[in-house]
Amino acid sequence: GWLPVPYLNAEAQRRYLESTGRVLVTPRTHHVSSIHYDLSFASLEDDVRYPFRNIASVLREADIAFANLEGPLSDKARHSGAFRMPTAFADALRWAGVDVVSNANNHALDAEGEGLLDTREALWKAGVGGVGTGRNLADARRPFIVERSGVKVGFLGYSQLLNGGTSGFAQEDRSGVAPLDPFLIEEDIRALRSQVDFVVVSFHWNIENSQDTHPDDRVFAHRVIDAGADIILGHHPHVPKGVEVYKGKVILYSFGNLIFGHNHDYWMNNFIARLHLTRSGVREVEILPISGRGNDLSQPFLLQGADATALLEDLQARTRLLDTAMEIRGAAGIIRP
After folding, report:
1. Distance CA 199, CA 176 (A)
2. Cα angle vertex 296, ends 93, 326, to 5°?
């Protein structure tokens, strides 16, 4: 049950510790007590593209595809946290059709400051936009703007928490992550509002493994919408939550997972959202269930049949609690703002 750490996980060392009468306990954490996939690949390209092979066609259909990137991309930075991915993963994101990601999350500094900057460079070289981290606070707050068919969409990214405390939040003279600070967010929205048709904010927030939407979360989200945001994209809980329409704007409190390097028996199926944007606003939101149990989280696919219906019915009930109606149409949920 030990982590595969060099010099500590050799058979001789395990035997020695066990001979002293010590019990080797596996703590219940994401990177230890989990479902591992036991995968092997012929090449690095096969490795980094593997997770997207069953979902890439859906992402490529979108004019703009967004995702939360839960961990740094670096080939040489010190691996000091739970996650680190090779920079080749940035090319896989682009290959799969992802246009922009938020790096603002609690694992952003798992390869320390060097890894944070390596991530930004790898995304830039691959042609993937990134928000939520930077060389300083102003850089971390910088939006990424995409224009499609004459419609401009601006993205901003923020995180409520960081592993290791608050020291990783960006400051005026220090690299890091943009904090989930309402005053900064409101200021950033005001600065971006006149430049785009849609302001989209990404929030890494909330309580892990809880599907409930806390009243305080709604108050915070409404404040951000009132400040001028059109869409809020939430993540971090690892499980899906209900969707709210507030004043014609869309709040997705949590999608759950898309792809993850391991799984847990208490994680579940998830969803992606397809938002239809027009100059007059969000015309429709499609909720598309995706697989997320067991090994499926390593290579998700669109759900059909009973599995899709079960997830949609649960989301429908949770969405109703947020004063929002969702129609179930086949293997998709439909919300009309």
Report:
1. 22
2. 85
Report strand pairing: 198-204 vs 231-235: parallel
Q: Please give the structure tokens belonging to residue 59.
A: 């992402």
CA 205 to each of CA 114, 154, 209, 228, 285: distance values in angstroms, whole numbers, following the listed order: 24, 20, 12, 20, 22
CA dihedral of 46, 48, 54, 57, whole degrees rounded to 10: -110
* 125 residue type, one letter: K
Distances (CA, A) of 178 to 104, 136, 296: 6, 9, 32
DSSP H helices in the chain: 11-19, 44-49, 56-61, 88-96, 112-126, 137-140, 182-193, 215-226, 305-320
C-alpha dihedral, 123 to 299 to 105 to 3, nearest 10°: -110
CB 258 within 8 A of CB 67: yes
Beta strands in the chain (DSSP E): 66-68, 100-102, 129-131, 133-134, 144-148, 151-159, 176-177, 198-204, 231-235, 243-246, 249-252, 270-278, 281-290, 327-329, 332-335
**Would you call 267 helix, strand, or coil by DSSP?**
coil
Query: What three-state secondary structure class fits 90?
Result: helix
Of the CA atoms within 13 Å of residue 116, those in its CB half-sphere come to 28
Q: How many residues does the chain have?
A: 337
What SS3 state is found at 30?
coil
Question: What is the pTM (predicted TM-score) of this model?
Answer: 0.90
Q: What is the pLDDT of residues 227-285, one digit of tens each?
A: 999 999 999 999 999 999 999 999 999 999 999 999 999 999 999 999 999 989 999 99
- Tens digit of each residue's pLDDT (9 = 90 or more) over 197-228: 999 999 999 989 999 999 999 999 999 999 99
